[in-house]
Each structure stands twice: as structure tokens, then as C-alpha cells.
Specification:
heterodimer; B: 416 residues; 14-stranded parallel beta sheet; 12% helix
């Protein structure tokens, strides 16, 4: 698996898209810090960008890579290699290189602007961890979609739809259901509903840092416990971990059964 | 005739003696090994305008009644331990000064408001450099005017509202100065009831269970340069007129019923130059009229200003609204309240004629804030892309939010 991971990784490192992705974050980081020298403010802006952009790029890139390297995959399948090794190797190669681009692209400007001397380091770490989780989750979901759909157009369509659903439509439905059932106690439901969407989950992590004063305005014991203590942070991270493991596990199972 | 003359001469002589005593005033030293070893004894021995110099040590006394104009001066913070038996010092005379004492263990009662220092129907008192700990009520001014409470430190350990008292309480006391005190861990840090023309400056009131500062039926008061931090419910100003609130800082009042400042039935007030930072609600306004909000900073609050209704002729001018989750929340009509020339950090308009004023009006009420008012649980959707999209569409054509609620001349740069 490591060998395949290495091949995929190096292959991607040499590809143009990784550089574009890396340069994009580099530019974003520098521009933000240039316009507004305050590190913690820049981290907050980036958090907003990252929860939308990282999933989109992870999805598109994952699907694209899978379809593009199909011939190589088929070649590998002819070798005496375990299937899960091949697919997981490729998956970790893609997700790893994307995460690396993210880390380097944002890390370089922030370190140059004195990250280690500021108190924003915890928030920045949280930002990178959230970004990494989202990359791994959405690349895994994209691989699952690509594996289940032979038709490229269909695969792309589903992938974009998945992103649109989780980033926008889910929140719309969520809001609608909250308003329709407003007569009922909803604080447990609303927290549970955030758990079922990795983008919302990452957003919650940001809210915990940013809007804590507004969140504590709502009466509700569950809310208070979740947002008032470190409990919320812990639960969100654990659920994000689940969200990563689950699609990877399905990828491993599915790839074993699939007929090529 | 001769008799009368003699009498008047005697009277004159007595007045002279009295006057000279006022000028000189004996000093009685009190310490555990001295001739006078207790404060009560010292007061009994003293005549008007004497000074009681209390040396360092512990004095286990309570119910000390000061019934003549005296100065109680502590040296090296002598401890007066009430052993939780009741009130400690009661002042019932004019012109009393209490300086430099360390008073602990005031008795707690459910029927009587025991205080560390109580001033009853007296004038020209001065209470300064006093430290109070383990108290019920701290300094209690009752129908006493023209006094000064200066540079005291009151540190309570209150846990529940029902069995704790206020740090500094004024009841029917006018023309009092409360300056440079530190109050923490009491029920209300500073509480005013029926007290007019009171000046409250440079105090620091924090970690109190209920309000940092609480006004009730008190008019024409001024409070400036105070800091109120992490109080249970912030600062409450209720049923009062003509109050000036300037250059105060309200910070970190978090909770479901927590406010930086709560205004209820306040008329003709001025609120200027204050900083509201990281409160759940910066200012909560209810039934308040003719108030000028000028040059305040609202930074990182959940709601900067929440207007609850029955508010008329309030003017918000030259304020900075910076990075609040919601700038304004409104649940009634705009009425004749005005938002004019404020700086809003979330303003996205432009200024083509470069006069420092944005060319597009700013609407501070977002659709999302309307939704959260209706269904509070939706707060978890804060900052989601979906919300940004519907907020944007509402901004373009307002349907749910009052369309005349806007700042027609938003500033492009922060007010300094």
C-alpha cells in the first residue's frame, strides 16, 4: 500500500493541479494578512472560506483523479496485489497531497507573519485540523461515488450534487424543519442534525471559537453543556473522525466486491 | 439682668471651647495592649471630632454604633471581626469618617439586612480605604446625603441570590460620590434605589451574581469610567430618568439572561463613549425613550443592540459596530428611532464621491436575526452558506425585515 501511496503522491505532486491549489492558498493567505495584519481575524475569515471550499475541491479532485487513473488502476489490478491496498493507496495519495497543499499554502504566509509569536496558534491549528478532516472525508466520499459509477458524467454529477447538498441544501432543509416543528423542544435535535453533516460539524467548531457569546443566549441545558464547555469540541472532533473512517471502510469493502 | 449676661458669657465660652475642640480634636489610640482596647470603648470615651487611631490587630466586635462626629482611622489595616453575629459598624451621626479598616464576617440573616458599614440618616460621611470580606451587605447608605465612598475593596463570596447582599447599596441617598471602588462576588455590585444626583466613577464591579450596577427609581445620576465584567446579568438601569452613562466598559456578560446593559423604562438618558465587548447582548432596550447613543463601541457581541419595543426617539449616532454576530435585533416597528452615521464592520457598500459616507444605506437587521427571534434553535445555523445566501437575497429586496430600518449614511471608516 505504501508503494502505491508513494506513486500516487509523487504523481500528484508533479501534477499542475496540486501547484494551482497550493498557490491559491498561498495567495489567499498572503492577501488576507496583507489587507489585515491581525492574525486571529485572518484565521476567522479563512475558516469561513475553508468549510465551503475544501469540500468542493476534495470532491472534484477525488472524482477526477479516480477516473483519470483508471487505466493505471486496471494495470495494477492485474498484479498480485490486494485490492484494498490499491484503492486505499490511491486514496491516501490524493487526500495526503491535497492536505499538504493546504498546510503549506496557509502555513507559509502565517508563519512569515509571526504565527508562533501570536495567540492565534490554537485557532490556526484547529483550522488546519478541520481542513484536513474535510479533505479526507470528501475525497473518500468522492472515491466512493466514482467507484459506484462507471459513467464519468454521472459520477461528476453525483459528486457535485453531494457537495451542493451538504454545503447548502442540507442547511435549508434543516432550517425548514426547525421552523415547522418550532412548537417542540428542539435543542437536542438541532445539535444532532449538525452531527450528520461534516460541513455543519466543522462550522460548529468555528462557532465555538467565534460566536460563543451569541450561542449562549439560547436557553437549553443541552446547548449550554455543548457550547459552554470543552465537551462540544471533543464531540465534534470524535464525530469528524467517524465521518472519515466510515467512507474509507466502505471504500475498502466495495473495492473488494467490484467487478472490473 | 446680670444673670442673663453671665449666662450668655458662659454660653459663649462653651461655644469657644467646642470650636477649639473642633479645630484640635484629640486622638485616642486603640490597640490590644493599650489603655483603650476596644473600638466601642474608644467611641464611648471620645467626644465630638476626635480621632480614633486603631492600631494593627484583630478586634472581635460587632454592633459598633458611631453616634457622634468621629474619625475612625486604621493603621496597617486592623481587622474587625464580626464573627457573623450581625451588623458591624452603624453610623448615625453626621461628619463621620471611616478610613483604613479591614472588616470581615458580617452576619447573614433572612430578616435583617446586616451590613459591614451602615450609614443611617447622616450627612457628610466619608468611607474610604476600607476592605470588606466575607460579608452580607457591604456599605449600606440609608437616607444619607452628601457623602463619599472612596477607594474601598469589597470581596464577597456570594453563591445564591436569596442569601447574599449587595456590595454598595444606596437607599434614598442623594448627592453621594462612589469613586474608585472594587466590588466583586456580591449580589449586586452597586445598587441604587430612590437615590438622585449620585456620581459613580472609576469603579470596577465584576463577578457579581446578579448585576454589576443596578439602578431603580433613581434620577439625574452619572456614571463614568467604570468597568463591569463577568456579572451574572450585566448592568441594569430601570425606571430612572436623566442618567448619563459615559466611557464605561461592559465585558463578558454571557448567558441566557445576560446583558452588557439592560435598559427598562429609561427616559432622557445619554449613553456615550462606552465599550461593549463580548456580551451575549450588548444593550437590551425596553420601553425607553429619548436616549442618545453616541460614540459607543460594540465589539464581538452576540447581539450588539436588541430593541424590544415601546421605544421612541432613540438616536444611534457615530457608534462602531464591530464583528458582532448580529448588529441589531428588532421585534417591533422602527417608530421614530434613528440610526445615523455609524460604522458597521459588515457594511459592504461603496463610496464613489469619497466623502467618507457610504452611498448605499446599510440595513442592520438581517433576515437570519428575524428567524432566530422566532425559532431560537436556528442559532446553530449561524455562518452557514445557506444563511448567507438568504440574507443576501433579503438584503437586495427586504420582505420580512422592516425596510425603513436602516442607516442611510453609514460611515466608511471607524469612528475614532
Amino acid at each position: 500500500m505504501l508503494k502505491i501511496l508513494k506513486y500516487s503522491f509523487y504523481d500528484l505532486m508533479r501534477s499542475r493541479w496540486s501547484y494551482v491549489y497550493f498557490l491559491f492558498y498561498l495567495a489567499l493567505g498572503f492577501v488576507l494578512l496583507f489587507l489585515n495584519n491581525d492574525l486571529s481575524k485572518a484565521v476567522i475569515t479563512l475558516m469561513n472560506v475553508i468549510i465551503v471550499l475544501v469540500p468542493l475541491i476534495g470532491t472534484i479532485f477525488g472524482v477526477m483523479y479516480f477516473y483519470n487513473s483508471k487505466e493505471f488502476t486496471e494495470l495494477l489490478l492485474a498484479q498480485p496485489l490486494r485490492r484494498s491496498t490499491i484503492f486505499l493507496g490511491q486514496y491516501f495519495g490524493v487526500a495526503g497531497s491535497l492536505t499538504l497543499s493546504l498546510f503549506l499554502g496557509l502555513g507559509v504566509p502565517f508563519i512569515l507573519y509571526g504565527l508562533f509569536r501570536s495567540d492565534a496558534i490554537f485557532n490556526f491549528t484547529l483550522l488546519l485540523v478541520t481542513g484536513a478532516f474535510l479533505t479526507f472525508i470528501f475525497t473518500a466520499l468522492a472515491f466512493n461515488i466514482a467507484l459506484s459509477n462507471e459513467n464519468r458524467i454521472k459520477g461528476f454529477g453525483y459528486a457535485v450534487l453531494l457537495w451542493l447538498f451538504l454545503a447548502v441544501i442540507y442547511d435549508g432543509l434543516f432550517l425548514l424543519s426547525l421552523i415547522v416543528f418550532e412548537e417542540y423542544p428542539l435543542d437536542t435535535f438541532s445539535l444532532a442534525a449538525t452531527m450528520f453533516n461534516p460541513i455543519d460539524l466543522s462550522r460548529t467548531l468555528i462557532l465555538l471559537k467565534l460566536d460563543i457569546s451569541a450561542l449562549l443566549g439560547y436557553t437549553g441545558a443541552v446547548f449550554k453543556k455543548f457550547f459552554g464547555t470543552d465537551f462540544g469540541l471533543l464531540v465534534s472532533l470524535v464525530v469528524l473522525l467517524f465521518w472519515t473512517i466510515l467512507p474509507i471502510w466502505r471504500l475498502a469493502i466495495k473495492s473488494k466486491r467490484k467487478d472490473f | 439682668m446680670n444673670h442673663i449676661l453671665l449666662h450668655s458669657k458662659l454660653l459663649f465660652f462653651l461655644i469657644l471651647i467646642g470650636g477649639s475642640q473642633f479645630l484640635m480634636g484629640r486622638t485616642i489610640t486603640i490597640c490590644s495592649t493599650c489603655e483603650v482596647s476596644s473600638i466601642k470603648k474608644g467611641i464611648a470615651l471620645a467626644v465630638e471630632y476626635d480621632t480614633l487611631l486603631i492600631k494593627k490587630g484583630t478586634y472581635k466586635e460587632y454592633n459598633i454604633v458611631i453616634d457622634k462626629p468621629l474619625t475612625l482611622l486604621g493603621e496597617g489595616y486592623p481587622v474587625i471581626d464580626g464573627e457573623e453575629k450581625g451588623e458591624i459598624i452603624t453610623i448615625v451621626s453626621d461628619n463621620v469618617t471611616v478610613d483604613g479598616l479591614f472588616i470581615i464576617n458580617v452576619g447573614t440573616s433572612y430578616t435583617t439586612d446586616y451590613a459591614a458599614i451602615r450609614v443611617v440618616k447622616s450627612e457628610n460621611f466619608l468611607i474610604q480605604h476600607v476592605v470588606l470580606e466575607r460579608l452580607f451587605f457591604g456599605i449600606y447608605l440609608e437616607k444619607s446625603n452628601n457623602g463619599k465612598v472612596y477607594h474601598n475593596k469589597i470581596i464577597g463570596d456570594a453563591v445564591d441570590e436569596y442569601n447574599s447582599g449587595n456590595g454598595i447599596q444606596l437607599w434614598y441617598s442623594h448627592h453621594v460620590q462612589v469613586d474608585r471602588n472594587i466590588v466583586q462576588g456580591t449580589r449586586d455590585g452597586i445598587y441604587l434605589e430612590f437615590s438622585d444626583n449620585v456620581t459613580i466613577n472609576n469603579n470596577r464591579s465584576s463577578d457579581n451574581i446578579r448585576y454589576g450596577l443596578h439602578f431603580m427609581f433613581s434620577n439625574d445620576d452619572i456614571y463614568t469610567n467604570n468597568t463591569f465584567e463577568n456579572n451574572g446579568a450585566g448592568v441594569a438601569v430601570m425606571f430612572s430618568k436623566n442618567i448619563r452613562m459615559q466611557n464605561n466598559t461592559f465585558r463578558k456578560n454571557w448567558g441566557t439572561a445576560s446583558f452588557g446593559m439592560l435598559l427598562k423604562e429609561i427616559n432622557d438618558a445619554e449613553i456615550s463613549g462606552n465599550t461593549f465587548e463580548e456580551n451575549t447582548i450588548g444593550i437590551n432596550i425596553e420601553g425607553s425613550n429619548r436616549i442618545n447613543y453616541i460614540g459607543n463601541d460594540f465589539i464581538n457581541n452576540g447581539w450588539a443592540v436588541k430593541v424590544r419595543g415601546a421605544c421612541y426617539t432613540n438616536i444611534f449616532k457615530n457608534n462602531n459596530f464591530l464583528y458582532n454576530s448580529f448588529d441589531i435585533s428588532y421585534n417591533s416597528k422602527v417608530n421614530d428611532n434613528i440610526f445615523e452615521q455609524n460604522y458597521w464592520s459588515s457594511y459592504t457598500g461603496y463610496d464613489l464621491d469619497k466623502n467618507g459616507i457610504g452611498d448605499v444605506p446599510y440595513r442592520p437587521v438581517k433576515l437570519f436575526s428575524y428567524i432566530v427571534n422566532r425559532t431560537p434553535e436556528t442559532i446553530v445555523l449561524l455562518r452557514s452558506l445557506f444563511m448567507d445566501i438568504i440574507d443576501f437575497s433579503e438584503k437586495v429586496s427586504p420582505v420580512f425585515t422592516p425596510d425603513n430600518l436602516m442607516d442611510p449614511n453609514p460611515l466608511m471608516r471607524k469612528v475614532k
